[in-house]
């Protein structure tokens, strides 16, 4: 089993990629357990109930701003509206916490060290796990590697997750997801999703083909951080 | 009773969950059985008296995270399985003297954690295989 370095992890909050301001994150899923006893076994019997997921998130204070880590936490502290947090481990897996709020934050100022911010995202609903189709810094028109969903996924429903973060000058981003039966030809559109320069969205897919790939398009040169996955 | 020599952990432990060998994703594993003590002290007692109560079993694991490991644990964390999984741990060096604790359709994942707390280190994981009921202990 190959290892993965921490520098391959990304945290995206409401479409804002906070990875470049983050020093670490830890996803913890504590399963609820119902314990009971029966006469025919002297050991405890157990059943899983539901997971309770939290994401500890640490980073740096980088100044005031809507896309700054400190502001992202503060603006969503005890938020009554749903906050979408993606914990992405490139290039393969992501966990999507759809109904979160920031349940704690602290700003630490140790002398002779960096200003740091510590936070925690608490999940109200059930967490989703998905496969990454495209992720990271991409240039306009980048076609992601072909993702093989496996034969078991053919024809089943799924959810596409989109997030884009980068420019703050108002340029929109389009993420095109295409599907193919054989992974080499016959590509057709599964979903074309328009996002603001900072934003995310989900789209339900009624039926899946086996192979998926994604392409990013935005006005202007350079690159942007974009993430697409299938749940 | 003859006692054998101590056995190093490396290469001599196998952990499986849902019939998948996750040993390569573990750098430590701990089989734990906690027995609840039932107090039976009575008026005739001269000290606190106890009897052994039910045992609760678990296997705690941790190590380097990988997609392959997550493919085993992740789906069961997101959606607990309707039917619990198989799990076993085998400890020992030579055939015929290895001890295997096994649970059939009695295991599920608890306290699954993916630790990416440092960008310059490997992503780690930890989790418990929570085990319902008593194991079957065999020599393999």
Helix-residue proportion of chain A: under 10%
Q: Write the element-wise H/E pattern of chain A from the N-terminal end onward.
A: EEEEHEEEEEEEEEEE
Distance between the termini of chain B: 20 Å
Question: How many strands in all of chain B?
Answer: 8
Main beta-sheet strand count, sense and barrel state of chain B: 8 strands, antiparallel
- As a percent range, the share of helical residues of chain B equals under 10%
Count of separate DSSP helical elements of chain B: 1
**Class from secondary-structure proportions of chain A:** mainly beta
Overall shape of chain A: flat
Specify Rg of chain B, calculated over alpha carbons: 18 Å
Mean pLDDT of chain B: 93
Envelope shape of chain B: globular
Q: Given the helix and strand composition of chain B, which structural class is it?
A: mainly beta
Strand content of chain B: over 45%
Give the radius of gyration of chain A.
20 Å
Could you name the CATH topology of the largest domain in chain A?
Elongation Factor Tu (Ef-tu), domain 3
- Named CATH architecture of the largest domain in chain A: Beta Barrel
Please give the number of β-strands of chain A.
Answer: 15
Total helices of chain A: the number is 1
* Beta-strand proportion of chain A: over 45%
In short:
The complex is a heterodimer of chains A (231) and B (140). With 231 residues, chain A is mainly beta.
Report on this structure:
The complex is a heterodimer of chains A (231) and B (140). Chain A contains 1 helix and 15 strands. In chain A, the strands form 2 sheets. In chain A, strands 1, 2, 3, 4, 5, 6, 7, 8, 10, 13 and 15 form an 11-stranded antiparallel β-sheet that branches. Chain A has a 4-stranded antiparallel β-sheet with strand order 9-14-11-12, with no helix packed on it. Chain A has 2 domains: 6-128, Elongation Factor Tu (Ef-tu), domain 3; 132-230, Sandwich (Jelly Rolls). The model of chain A has no long low-confidence stretch (mean pLDDT 91). Chain A is 3% helix and 59% strand. Chain B is mainly beta. Chain B contains 1 helix and 8 strands. In chain B, a hairpin with a 2-residue loop joins strand 1 (13-17) and strand 2 (20-21). The longest helix of chain B has 12 residues, at 67-78. Classes of the chains: A mainly beta (231), B mainly beta (140). The A-B interface holds A 1-9, 23-31, 33, 35, 37, 41-51, 56, 58, 87, 89, 92-93, 95, 126-129 and B 24-25, 54-57, 64-70, 74-75, 77-81, 84, 108-123, 130-134. Strand 3 of chain A pairs antiparallel with strand 6 (99-116) of chain B.
């Amino acid at each position: 089993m190959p290892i993965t370095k921490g520098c391959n992890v990304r945290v995206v909050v409401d479409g804002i990629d906070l990875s470049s301001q983050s020093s670490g994150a830890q996803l913890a899923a504590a399963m609820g357990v119902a314990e009971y006893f029966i006469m025919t076994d002297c050991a405890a019997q157990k059943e899983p109930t539901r997971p309770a997921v939290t994401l500890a998130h640490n980073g740096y204070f980088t100044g005031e701003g809507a896309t700054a880590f400190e502001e992202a936490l503060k603006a969503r502290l005890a938020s009554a509206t749903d906050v979408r947090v993606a914990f992405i481990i490139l290039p393969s897996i992501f966990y999507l916490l759809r109904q979160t709020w920031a349940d704690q934050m602290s700003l630490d100022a140790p002398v002779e060290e960096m200003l740091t911010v510590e936070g925690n995202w608490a999940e109200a609903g059930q967490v989703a796990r998905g496969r990454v189709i495209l992720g990271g810094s991409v240039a306009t028109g980048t076609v992601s590697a072909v993702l093989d969903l496996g034969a078991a996924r053919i024809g089943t429903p799924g959810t596409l997750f989109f997030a884009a973060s980068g420019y703050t000058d108002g340029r929109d981003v389009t993420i095109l997801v295409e599907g193919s039966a054989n992974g080499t030809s016959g590509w057709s559109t599964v979903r074309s999703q328009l996002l603001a320069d900072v934003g995310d969205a989900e789209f339900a897919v009624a039926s899946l083909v086996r192979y998926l790939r994604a392409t990013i398009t935005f006005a202007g040169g350079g690159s942007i951080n974009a993430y697409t996955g299938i749940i | 009773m003859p006692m054998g020599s101590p056995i190093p952990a490396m290469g001599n432990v196998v952990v499986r969950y849902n019939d998948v060998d996750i040993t390569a994703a573990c750098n430590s594993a701990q089989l734990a059985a906690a027995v609840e003590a039932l107090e039976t002290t009575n008026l005739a007692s001269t000290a606190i008296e106890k009897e052994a109560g039910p045992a609760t079993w678990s296997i705690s694991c941790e190590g380097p995270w990988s997609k392959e490991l997550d493919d085993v644990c992740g789906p069961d964390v997101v959606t607990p399985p309707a039917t619990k999984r198989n799990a076993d741990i085998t400890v020992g060096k030579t055939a015929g003297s290895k001890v295997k604790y096994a649970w059939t359709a009695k295991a599920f994942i608890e306290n699954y954690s993916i630790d990416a707390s440092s960008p310059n280190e490997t992503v780690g994981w930890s989790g418990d295989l929570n085990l319902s009921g008593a194991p079957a202990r065999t020599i393999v």
